[in-house]
Automatic annotation (TrEMBL):
<dbReference type="Pfam" id="PF00742">
    <property type="entry name" value="Homoserine_dh"/>
</dbReference>
<keyword id="KW-0560">Oxidoreductase</keyword>
<dbReference type="InterPro" id="IPR036291">
    <property type="entry name" value="NAD(P)-bd_dom_sf"/>
</dbReference>
<feature type="binding site">
    <location>
        <begin position="9"/>
        <end position="16"/>
    </location>
    <ligand>
        <name>NADP(+)</name>
    </ligand>
</feature>
<dbReference type="GO" id="GO:0009088">
    <property type="term" value="P:threonine biosynthetic process"/>
</dbReference>
<feature type="active site" description="Proton donor">
    <location>
        <position position="205"/>
    </location>
</feature>
<dbReference type="InterPro" id="IPR019811">
    <property type="entry name" value="HDH_CS"/>
</dbReference>
<keyword id="KW-0521">NADP</keyword>
<keyword id="KW-0791">Threonine biosynthesis</keyword>
<dbReference type="InterPro" id="IPR005106">
    <property type="entry name" value="Asp/hSer_DH_NAD-bd"/>
</dbReference>
<feature type="binding site">
    <location>
        <position position="105"/>
    </location>
    <ligand>
        <name>NADPH</name>
    </ligand>
</feature>
<dbReference type="InterPro" id="IPR002912">
    <property type="entry name" value="ACT_dom"/>
</dbReference>
<dbReference type="InterPro" id="IPR016204">
    <property type="entry name" value="HDH"/>
</dbReference>
<comment type="pathway">
    <text>Amino-acid biosynthesis; L-methionine biosynthesis via de novo pathway; L-homoserine from L-aspartate: step 3/3.</text>
</comment>
<feature type="domain" description="ACT">
    <location>
        <begin position="345"/>
        <end position="420"/>
    </location>
</feature>
<dbReference type="Pfam" id="PF01842">
    <property type="entry name" value="ACT"/>
</dbReference>
<feature type="binding site">
    <location>
        <position position="190"/>
    </location>
    <ligand>
        <name>L-homoserine</name>
    </ligand>
</feature>
Amino acid sequence: MKQVRVGVIGFGTVGTGTVKILLNQRELIKKRTGIDVVLKKVADKDIERPREITLPKELLTTDAWEIIKDPEIDIVVEVVGGTTVAKQFIMEALKNGKHVVTANKALLAEQGNEIFKEALSRGLKIGFEASVGGGIPIIKIMREGLVANKMLAIYGIINGTTNFILTKMTNEGIDFQDALRQAQTLGFAEADPTLDIEGIDSAHKITILASLAYGIPLSFDRVYCEGITKITAQDIAFAREFGYKIKLLAITKILNGEIELRVHPTMVPEDYLISKVDGVFNAIYVEGDSVGSTLYYGRGAGSMPTGSAVTADIVDIAKGVNTMPFDFSEKYKIKPMEEIESMYYFRFTALDRPGVLSKISGVFGEHNISIASVIQKGRSKAGAVPLVILTHKAREKDVLEALEKIDKLPVVSDKSVFIRVEGEES
C-alpha cells in the first residue's frame, strides 16, 4: 500500500479540521484509495491551547521549519493564512522538494503567479481546493469535471459572512450594522470584518476561479471590488418590489475576447436558484459551452468542510492527479469596469414636485440609458421622496457620467444610489 507522509503548519480552525479528518478517516481513505495518509507532524506557535482534538506531544512542534526540512515528509499543508510568513513556508517547502496544499486564497490571489511558477519549475504539485468555496469541490470540478468546456461565465456567492448579513437584512428588515452585529455575535464575522464586508475575500476567490476558467495569470489587482456596507434595508425592500434579491456576487465572464472580473452587490431575480442561497452558505454558478448552466452549493467555510477540501488535495497529490500546476499564461484583455454593460437600479432622493422624473429621464436619454420601470412612493416632512428606477442594459461609463450630472440637479437632495442588476431583460 502506498504511504504518504504529511506535515501540517497551522493548528487553528482549518488546521484542526484537517488533522481530525486525517486521523479519524485514515482507514476510510485507505479503503477507498489504497493510500495510507500518515500525519507525521503538526506545527503551531501555540501548541498548549485546548483544541477539539488532542494529539500526542511527539506529533506537535512550535517550529514550522522542522516540517519543511524533514526529508521524510512528502506533503506540506499550509493553513497559517496571511501573505508573509505563509509565503516563506510554501516557497521553502517547494525548494525542499515537497508538494504543497494550501487554503490561502489571499496569498494565491496576490502572489500565486510566483508560487505556481516555482512549483512548475520543480515538477511539484500545489493543491488549493480549500482556497475557494470551503467544502464545495469547485476547483476539482473546473479542472476535471468541466475540462472539456470553454468557460463562459462564473457567478459566485463565495463569502458566507456577507451572505448571512444580506439574508438577515432581507428576512428581518434590519439595517446593515444590526445584521453585522448579529454575525459577529454568532461567530460568522470577525471582530474586524473588513476583508468580508468590503468584498476583498470574494475578490481573492474570483481571481483564482478566473485564472482556472481562462488560463490567465492571477490578476487580483485588476478585480473591481465593492462591498455591502452601503446597502440599506430600503434598497432591499425596493429590490423585492421589482422581483429581485440583493446578493454580493463575484463575477467573471468572457465576451468577444475580453474578460470581466468584478465583485459587487448585485440584484438577482428572486426565481433564480442562486438568489435562494441564504445564510452562511455559498453557491457558484458556472456556465460552460458544452455543459450549459451548472450550480454548486454548500458550506463555504468552517473547520470540517475546509479540512475536507484540504484532505482531498492530499489524496489527489498522492494519487498523481493534476501532476503539474496550471500554467496561467493565456493573454486576454480584462475589460475596464467603465466598459461593462449591465442593467441598473437607481434610488434618487428627489423633491416632491412636478417634472422631476422628466429631468432625470432627460439626463438618462442624453447618456443612452433607457428606463424599464419606475417606483415612487411616500413623502417626507422635508418634501423629498425616494424615486426608484430600473433600467435596461447600459454602459457603466455612461451611468457614472449621468449620475454626476443628476446629483447636481436642484431637484435631487442627496447622493444617488445605484446597484447593478443581473438577469434577463424584460
